[in-house]
Amino acid sequence: MTHLSITEENYLKSILKLSDHNQTKIGTNEIANEINISAASVSDMLRKLADKKLITYQKYYGVKLTKTGEHYAKNLVRKHRLWEVFLTQKLQFSWDEVHDLAEQLEHVKGDDMINRLEKFLGNPKFDPHGDPIPDTMGNIAIRKQQLLIELKKGDKAVIIGVKDTATTFLQFLDSIKISLGTKFTVIGVVIYDHSMQLKLQDGRELMLSQQVCSNIFVSS
Amino acid sequence: MTHLSITEENYLKSILKLSDHNQTKIGTNEIANEINISAASVSDMLRKLADKKLITYQKYYGVKLTKTGEHYAKNLVRKHRLWEVFLTQKLQFSWDEVHDLAEQLEHVKGDDMINRLEKFLGNPKFDPHGDPIPDTMGNIAIRKQQLLIELKKGDKAVIIGVKDTATTFLQFLDSIKISLGTKFTVIGVVIYDHSMQLKLQDGRELMLSQQVCSNIFVSS
DNA sequence: GACTTAATTTAGTCTTGCCTAAAAAATATA
DNA sequence: TATATTTTTTAGGCAAGACTAAATTAAGTC
Ligand SMILES: [Mn+2]
Ligand SMILES: [Mn+2]
Ligand SMILES: [Mn+2]
Ligand SMILES: [Mn+2]
Known about the structure:
2 copies of one chain form a homodimer.
Chain A: H1 6-19, H2 28-35, H3 39-51, E1 55-57, E2 63-65, H4 67-89, H5 98-105, H6 111-120, E3 146-147, E4 156-162, H7 167-175, E5 183-189, E6 196-200, E7 205-208, H8 210-213, E8 216-219
Antiparallel strand pairs in A: 1-2, 3-8, 4-5, 4-8, 5-6, 6-7
Helix pairs in contact in A: 1-2, 1-4, 2-3, 4-5
The structure holds manganese (II) ion (MN) (4 copies).
One manganese (II) ion is lined by residues 81, 84, 127, 129, 131, 165 of chain A.
The structure holds a DNA duplex.
């Protein structure tokens, strides 16, 4: 495999992210928006990535990762998430602090290092935000999960991930002592604004807004 | 402190390395040779580094790090060596495999991360090659050490570092089961070529060439 | 001290990755 | 279908960091 620049890696990662659960082709503007770069620059880079057979690109009609491109992108996600686990599990960072550091660490070359890191961490399957860690082949564990917002009164579930990983959101969850693994029962749903009232395993009762509930993944 | 590019960091690191135990100014060619870049390119960069007050630079008369430049350079060395300890102690890499990975890891920004890493590693004072790890202030522990080649027949000592860290040299030492901490007595010095005969603590006897003995640091 | 050689800097280019402004193509609207 | 709007691409530039070739300065030699 050829050596990719950090920039190229980041483009592939963005395209993968935008493709998630979405087969259709990705537009230039979407990518530009995702990585905060002008559409003109993205257009330039797409041509280069297509030349390298990392994406299929038809002018004016969007892009899609090739198998090769997808492989690189998933490997990058794998590295990102393993480093996030390292930072939280070994260096005691909290889940809202690790993303930016992982953005840098993911570009360090050395698959052997990453495989050793994975083993050192005890072969984790999910990162600190509940996102699955691809294996060396790019395979990703599928979990049956749904958004908290989709639950009904009386449903019991456990929190297994967050959709939004913004610092403010994660810190808010910390402040109300909610984390991955927290078990609860839905004891009410407000019709007016779709806030949800939960009863946690530890006995506490909590009211969460629709926006919050739309960004928490649960498993029943 | 301003943000330095990886390139700038590497120039500072090279200048520090070349300055080691050597107060005189460093020449353009020396740097060019150290980082495998043309002298013309080095000349360009020196002007830029001088503009940023990271080095003092007088055209045609060489360069020297400023206090600021030295601080950056030592911090880089600190990061490099801590990552090398991580790779050997936690990921089980051997001492001949870690340098290139550390060359990448040292450029990851985040002093907090490095301080946590240091603590996680148990505040090591030396890296896997016996080189001292600067503290956050850039202070470096001084050890009384000398080269093996300087010893005389009958001297007892312990190996505490290597001067050459080339893969082939380190693998050679592995192959003859010599590592940091190995204790020995000099039982003979060949007059003809200055090879040295050692008796190790485990009873083995070894003959080492002058070149090998010139690249091993010992403490008595 | 003049001449030769070595070290260093300058001049002119190249590539990567970004930008803005303008042109072109696709899509939406009437 | 013609026009307006949005999206995307092209054109032209810029900065960083590299190169080679040429010019300049310093250092060494007779
Ligand atoms: Mn992340
Ligand atoms: Mn994550
Ligand atoms: Mn090293
Ligand atoms: Mn080292």
